[in-house]
Design brief:
By secondary structure, the chain is mostly helical. It has a single domain, classed as lambda repressor-like DNA-binding domains (434 Repressor (Amino-terminal Domain), Orthogonal Bundle). Helices cover 61% and strands 0% of the residues. The longest helix is centred in the middle third of the chain and has 11 residues, at 42-52. It starts with a helix and ends in a 7-residue tail after the last helix.
């Protein structure tokens, strides 16, 4: 699944380790999510969305469907 996790992480200047520590997961899990090899569980997706102040759909849904949401 294509997503914006890497983009949002880099905007904040965080490493994969930093993000993993904030979410209670490993750097490897963050890497797998960012590269689309692992789809996070709903609780983890919600935690990611809350941390970045975005909706789950804005991080995971719209990019995956090739849509850009305008506000």
């Amino acid at each position: 699944m294509k997503n914006r996790v890497g983009e949002l992480r880099e905007e904040r200047g965080w490493t994969k380790v930093d993000l993993g520590d904030r979410l209670g997961v490993s750097r490897q899990t963050i890497h797998a999510i960012e590269t689309g090899r692992y789809d996070p569980s709903l609780p983890l997706a919600l935690a990611i969305a809350k941390l970045f102040g975005e909706s789950v759909e804005d991080i995971f849904g719209n990019v995956a469907m090739g849509k850009v949401k305008k506000r």
